[in-house]
């Protein structure tokens, strides 16, 4: 980092990220597991629902393989309940699950088909998803991402195109009575190593973002010996502050935005 860049960052005045589009009313967030949105993106969701925007969650799995000490059937039940509670905290009342198997998601037509069906039903303008890249960070030696996130994120980016093409998965038109939906204008990828856009979040949305992660208490308690509150606070506020330093010093959630 150059001396100039460093001093700008210290003053928190630089805005290296473009503003997230705000001229939309319906978003669909599609992720692999309960908790994927709560590790940072949920604060942005809280900001948007507070403005009256409509956000729906779609999860490919129930995260049943995510708790080492809990049998998958029990974990699925517990984690679904935690996800619904966590969505409610940020103003999301509709949460759907696709029932793909946790840990072995496969990128491809089967997953794209199920995601496209929900896009056609909800007709969102903005689709949110989670990092589909190989790693979490951009630098050498960055932590390896999980296979589910890679498969899911890439399938979401593809399914957005599928949803608009009436010749792909056309049986959905006859069977489910849905129409093609080509109205998705952006796909925003959370937790990407290549963020381009950011949305500032206020005090209330940040607080709700933290509360939404804390709803995943069984998962967090199995994951770490740290106090759940301290753990969740360091994750959520750590992310908001990190992106804030790239967005004029305002606590923010950042995304890699693909326009369509
Ligand atoms: Zn995940």
UniProtKB/TrEMBL annotation:
Q: Tell me any Pfam family this protein matches.
A: PIG-L
Q: Has the keyword Zinc been applied to this entry?
A: yes
Tell me which UniProt keywords the record has, alphabetically: Zinc
Matching InterPro entries: GlcNAc_PI_deacetylase-related, LmbE-like_dom_sf
Question: What's the protein name?
Answer: PIG-L family deacetylase
Read off the lineage from the record: Bacteria, Bacillati, Actinomycetota, Actinomycetes, Kitasatosporales
């Amino acid at each position: 980092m150059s001396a100039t860049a460093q001093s700008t960052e210290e003053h928190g005045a630089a805005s290296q990220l473009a503003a997230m589009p705000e001229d939309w009313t319906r978003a669909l967030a599609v992720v692999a597991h309960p908790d994927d949105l709560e590790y940072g993106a949920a604060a942005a969701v809280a900001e948007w629902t507070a403005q009256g925007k409509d956000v729906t969650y779609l999860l490919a799995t129930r995260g049943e393989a995510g708790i080492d000490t809990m049998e998958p059937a029990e974990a699925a039940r517990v984690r679904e309940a935690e996800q619904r509670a966590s969505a409610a905290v940020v103003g999301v009342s509709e949460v759907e699950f696709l029932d793909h198997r946790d840990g072995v998601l496969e990128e491809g037509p089967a997953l794209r088909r199920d995601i496209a069906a929900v896009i056609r039903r909800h007709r969102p303008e903005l689709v949110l998803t989670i990092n589909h890249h190989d790693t979490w960070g951009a630098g050498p030696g960055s932590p390896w991402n999980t296979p589910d996130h890679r498969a899911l994120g890439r399938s979401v980016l593809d399914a957005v195109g599928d949803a608009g093409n009436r010749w792909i998965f056309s049986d959905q038109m006859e069977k489910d009575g849905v129409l093609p939906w080509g109205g998705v204008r952006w796909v925003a990828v959370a937790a990407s190593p290549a963020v381009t856009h950011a949305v500032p979040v206020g005090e209330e949305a940040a607080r709700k973002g933290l509360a939404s992660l804390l709803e995943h208490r069984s998962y967090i308690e199995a994951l770490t010996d740290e106090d759940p509150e301290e753990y969740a606070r360091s994750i959520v506020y750590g992310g908001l502050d990190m992106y804030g330093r790239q967005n004029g010093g305002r606590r923010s959630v950042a995304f890699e935005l693909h326009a369509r």
